[in-house]
Amino acid sequence: MSFEENVRKVIPYVPGEQPNRPNMIKLNTNECPYPPSPRVEEALQNLDADRMRLYPDPTASELVNALAARYQVNPDQVFVGVGSDDVLAMSFLTFFNSEKPVLFPDITYSFYDVWADLFRIPYQTCPLREDFTICGEDYLRPNGGIVIPNPNAPTGLLEPVDNLECIIAANPDSVVIIDEAYVDFDGESVLPLVDQYENLLVVQTFSKSRAMAGARIGFAIGQPKLIAYLNDVKFSFNSYTMSHVSLAAGKAAVEDETYFQEITARIVRTRERAKEELRTLGFSFPDSKANFIFATHERMGAKEIFDRLRERDIYVRYFNKPRIDDYLRITVGTDEQMEALFAALREILL
Q1: Helices 38-45 & 244-255, crossing angle to 10 degrees?
Q2: Exposed/middle/buried for residue 120 (C-beta within 10 Å: 0-12, 13-18, 19+)
Q3: Smaller CB count within 10 Å for the chain: N or C?
Q4: What is the DSSP letter of 282?
Q5: pLDDT at 248 over 90
């Protein structure tokens, strides 16, 4: 008998490529093209290095309180973790323990099935319609939990809150997670529904709209009972998940509402201009409400465009998966980066 018979084997999540080349244009991992709030830099400069010898606050109370104030909920309704990936993984581990399958879309964030396999959670995928919208009826059957990203990744489509509420209301015996990583880019959040539904958990991140992917901060908001269950699992796994650095930087970012509104509005304006330009170049795409555009070209295959952009040190995301293998996911960068992308696409396509 080999020890490998008792090894937990999974097919891991594959993140977007992280090249490090001079003068490259990186539009492949949905990072914010702008720096974090100036208050973040100030907070880091004022951080006492001597504190690094001490464990951080396991309750992350300063960050939790700042988020509670920003989203007008009570602190016991807020959970924080090391990026929304950590929050979501903890949520899968905490809430999805039924023998019934967890449900999520077939075209979605590709970490969901990885976590399900890792934690031995049964799951079924629900096919999106041809236009990439959710078929709500698919989520009205027996299940062990539901997770839906809104806006969806990688399509960028935003599902109306009323449609999601129908799913939440119809599944009172299951936890429904709405993953709102991209909701700040012109989307409508389901957060106002949290006080109505004890089975609703809303997850968001600092990695996109708050320009802090490198700080690894995510959070969840739900009714106190859900948050208490999450904390029980977290403290059974690792009490000190948030560093002094992330806590200080996160609190500063949350408290600078003006900067947050400015950069999200700037990205939305660039995204809408990019849609117009991509259409003139022969692309079509769902109407993204995220900080990326999921585009297919009328004449040239996505893989060929991807390769030819890469030769020019312009990086976008290509998924070699059924139904989406002729699409590119293009992160919205600065206006200058997008103009360089369009110039390269003109060379390639015209």
Answers
A1: 140
A2: exposed
A3: N
A4: T
A5: yes
